[in-house]
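2024-03-11 09:14:02 DEBUG pipeline.ingest accepted 1 chain
2024-03-11 09:14:02 DEBUG pipeline.ingest length=500
2024-03-11 09:14:03 DEBUG pipeline.predict start
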Amino acid sequence: MSYLNPAASIGHSSKRFPFGWVPNQLKADPPGNILHKPLTPLRLTLELCAMFPFKYNRQKGAYYLETCSIKFFYSGFMALWLTVLAVCNAIGIFRVANPPAGYEKYIHTNRETQLLGVAIISSCVANAFVEILNVVMVKDGFLELLNGWNQMSKTTGLRTTQGLRKAVMVYVSLLWAFSGTMFIMTLLGKPDIVNDIVSAFADVFLQVNEVWMLHPDSNWLATAAVRALVCAMILQVYIMYKATMFAFVSCCKIIRNGLREWRRRLRSVLNDFWKPEPEGDVDSSLQLCSLARDHHHLVIMIRKVELIFSPSLQCYYGSTLVTLCVQMYLLAYRMAQGEEYTADEAIWHSVLILQTVLMFFLVSLSASGIPEEIDASADVLRRGLPYDAPDRAKYHFSELMSAVTAGPPVAISGGKFFIISRPFIITVVGAVVSYFVIILQLNLPSASRGGGAPASSPCTPDATSMQSFNGSGVLNGTDESSNATIDEDLTFTETQTLLV
């Protein structure tokens, strides 16, 4: 089966090559910026959050950065702003842990639910802070990554953006829909659980008294303005955090598309070797050489993505694990104590847990798909070459075999501390589920009453069996007959001492 050659547009329509593969002498002009259309919604979102200070030069066909531009100054200002916000958040957490007097009169939800929201938003602040510092400090690496996609498309001709535009539209639409809904609910002051969490962060970020925010006699317009400002600050760090993760997911999708396309070409070339009469006028040995070069470009892009996003991935998985444990702890505590959720609390907890879990699986499965695609390519290579294949073809085939199967695994890692794969996902899920079960067992009423508690050690007396003397020397918790027996024993002992 043959496929149309992309070089047909430059006067070579009579040539046909498998899966769009074109020799170097028939390469077309650079296709331009392949990231412009698919990533436009995400790029605009990142520009709004000062996470994309780069520009594209159409004449040179490359991204560049002007250190004196407004975009770069905006990114620097945002880095300073998030530094102040992170410090205020660290200090304000202690204020939330010790609420002011009279606070319980005005809060509409329990304190645990409010602290859960504070913990999640604090993790968003930490992630956004790490990500903006990464953009400012590793700006050259981001430029190499952006230009590397276009260079790889120019050199290899791989189709890497299939389905990317639809996926990005879904990610960005859900992000802005959730953010807009939260902002509208904050302005309306309903539901009460959102109002309580925003009021808590008014104390965290702006040092505004929480009682004043929740007091019914406070100025409604002033409290609404403060809530809107605090909500805008929260949504800013939330959008920065999620948009960066969506950018990482998009990079993983580009790489997976490239590996999948490369595997199709490899299968087609190997099929030509096993046919009695090869089709076409292109030497299959030359195609194997081109495949080895294209695979090298893909590995380089994988390493660049790993290097650029390693700080973000470390912070993301660390904060996500803590957030999941906090959510599981509060859920296990409420279940063990038999406390029922209100409608608002049930919806709030469900949305938070569902969003955290879905984001975890989206990021993890996108990254784990890269080594899976490489393993699938290794399965294609196991077919080998026929005995009468040319020596040049055997040499290039051995190059491909060593590049795909030998050496360390080609995968995305978090600073070399962990490799993102399906076993890693199962490990994290298993740890969170085990933590939930342990916390649930420790908070069960049967364990707290002593029915399921272990017997006390002889060296450590039980609290219910301990006795103490009162001021008159009589043991507490004993009756009068036992006290009289103790007095007689003491008198007999004193008499023996006098006789001696």
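2024-03-11 09:14:41 DEBUG pipeline.report Strands lie at 3-4, 16-17, 55-57, 62-64.
2024-03-11 09:14:41 DEBUG pipeline.predict end
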